[in-house]
Each structure stands twice: as structure tokens, then as C-alpha cells.
Specification:
By secondary structure, the protein is α+β, with helices and mostly antiparallel strands. The protein has seven helices and ten strands. The structure holds iron/sulfur cluster (2 copies).
Length: 241
């Protein structure tokens, strides 16, 4: 049975324990950061930062609101990035959990910008050597009966993980509860993704790519490029050995 997350932003305190736990479990290095006058740190996802708590302040209906959005790959049910990758096993969906996983073969993807451009949530990041990276659902932990590191450490109950049916049911139940306080509350793209966010306000207030952007998915240009890739790719391989 596939897995899913519920991230209930209405009880997120912005503590960033999930961000740190992700770094620790994946042994990812810290990054140089700058104070830019807000609590946002670092400024964006990167090859070394798979989980990032986005922080915004907004005046909504005359009240100041802190809007925290613990961002990560959504593990799409029909992942556009997997469809855009053009090298065997560069990106695969684990059938047991639904985790969308990037492998060392992402270095050989012929058009890495297609993978990046296909993601409606602007998640994949590329290193200088061509490798791409993002959240892997802590697949090694999950396969051994453990929670993803970010879920395990969350002190407020904002992060949930479990069998998809149970998580979808929990998400719908929480939405009804939250709507008594926040009438505009909604679940973001719950039928398309395995990481379901519950937000109190319009998703764009949290982050430009909180909700699937119209620009995501496989474009006609990408599809045309892919038609010619096998010849070019394996032709190059023969030439380079
Ligand atoms: S959110 Fe983006 S990177 Fe993650 S599975 Fe979906 S398309 Fe791929
Ligand atoms: S650990 Fe939980 S409360 Fe803290 S930032 Fe992450 S989701 Fe929010």
C-alpha cells in the first residue's frame, strides 16, 4: 500500500526541526547563508537542502499572520520529473511506497533542464557535476518500518505519515476542523500528490510554487526532444565508451 504525508501548516511553529533532521539523516552539509532581514534561512532548496521551511508574514483581514510552509518534494502520483528523465533508472517510483527517487544515473540525463522544468512545484536541484537531488521520502527508513526523519522529529504534530488511505482520511477530517477557524482553508492538490499540505489561506501567500503551477508537466518541446534522445544518447555512449 503506498504511503503519504499530511503537512498541517496550521500547527507548524516554524521551528525547523524537520529541516535539520533531513540534513542529519542524509548527511548533507550546511550552507553559507546571509541575513536578508527575515527568518528565511537558507533562501531556497538546493542540491544539499531537500527540506526547507519557507517563512512569510502577511496581513490578512487586518491581522498579522506568520505563514510557515515546510517544503519538500510532493512525491507526485504520476511524477512528471520521472517522465521527463531520459536515462534508464535515473528516476523511479518505488512501487511499495510511491516514493519518487533520484539515483546516481540522474548525472546521465540528457536534458536535465527538462526534469527541472517538468516539476510543477519547482523542486529538483542540480549539482555542478550534473547529479540531481531532492527528498527521497527517507525510503531507507520507511523500508525498515521507521518514520521519515522530518516526521519523527516534528514537535507540534504538523507532520503525519502513513498508509495513503489513512492519511487522505485524516487530511479531510483535519480540513473540516480547521475550517471552523479559517474558512478559506484547503488541501493542496490532494489527488495528485503524496505530500498533502493543509493551508489556512490561499497557497500563493505561502510560496509561489505551493500549488501546482500551470507551467509544469511535459511540454510539447520536451516531447519532441525526447523523440530523438535514444539515438543521441547511446550514440554518445558508443563514442565515449
Ligand atoms: S514534486 Fe517535482 S520533483 Fe517531486 S515527484 Fe513531483 S515532479 Fe518530481
Ligand atoms: S518540525 Fe514540525 S513544527 Fe517544526 S518547522 Fe517542521 S513541520 Fe513545522
Amino acid at each position: 500500500m503506498s504511503k503519504s504525508f499530511l503537512i498541517d501548516t496550521t500547527v507548524c511553529s516554524g521551528c525547523r526541526a524537520c529541516q535539520v533532521a533531513c540534513k542529519q539523516w542524509h548527511n548533507l552539509p550546511a550552507e553559507d547563508t546571509k541575513n536578508v532581514g527575515s527568518y528565511q534561512n537558507p533562501q531556497d532548496l538546493s542540491f544539499d537542502t531537500y527540506k526547507l521551511v519557507r517563512m512569510n508574514e502577511a496581513e490578512i483581514d487586518g491581522k498579522l499572520q506568520w505563514l510557515f510552509f515546510p517544503e519538500q518534494c510532493r512525491h507526485c502520483i504520476d511524477a512528471p520529473c520521472e517522465a521527463a528523465a531520459d536515462y534508464p533508472a535515473a528516476i523511479f517510483t518505488d512501487t511499495a511506497t510511491g516514493a519518487v527517487v533520484y539515483t546516481a544515473n540522474t548525472r546521465d540525463v540528457y536534458e536535465p533542464e527538462d526534469v527541472v522544468g517538468s516539476c510543477p512545484y519547482n523542486v529538483p536541484r542540480k549539482a555542478e557535476n550534473g547529479l540531481m537531488a531532492k527528498c527521497d521520502m527517507c525510503l531507507d527508513r520507511v523500508q525498515n518500518g521507521l518514520l521519515p526523519a522530518c516526521v519523527k522529529v516534528c514537535p507540534t504534530g504538523a507532520m503525519h505519515f502513513g498508509d495513503r488511505e489513512e492519511i487522505v482520511e485524516l487530511a479531510r477530517k483535519r480540513l473540516q476542523e480547521v475550517r471552523t477557524r479559517f474558512p478559506q482553508a484547503m488541501l493542496i492538490d490532494p489527488d495528485e500528490v503524496r505530500v498533502i499540505y493543509l493551508v489556512a489561506f490561499e497557497p500563493k501567500r505561502y510560496h509561489d510554487f505551493a500549488m501546482a503551477s500551470a507551467g509544469g508537466g511535459i511540454t510539447r518541446q520536451m516531447a519532441l526532444r525526447r523523440m530523438f534522445r535514444p539515438v543521441r544518447k547511446f550514440g554518445n555512449r558508443l563514442l565515449t565508451g
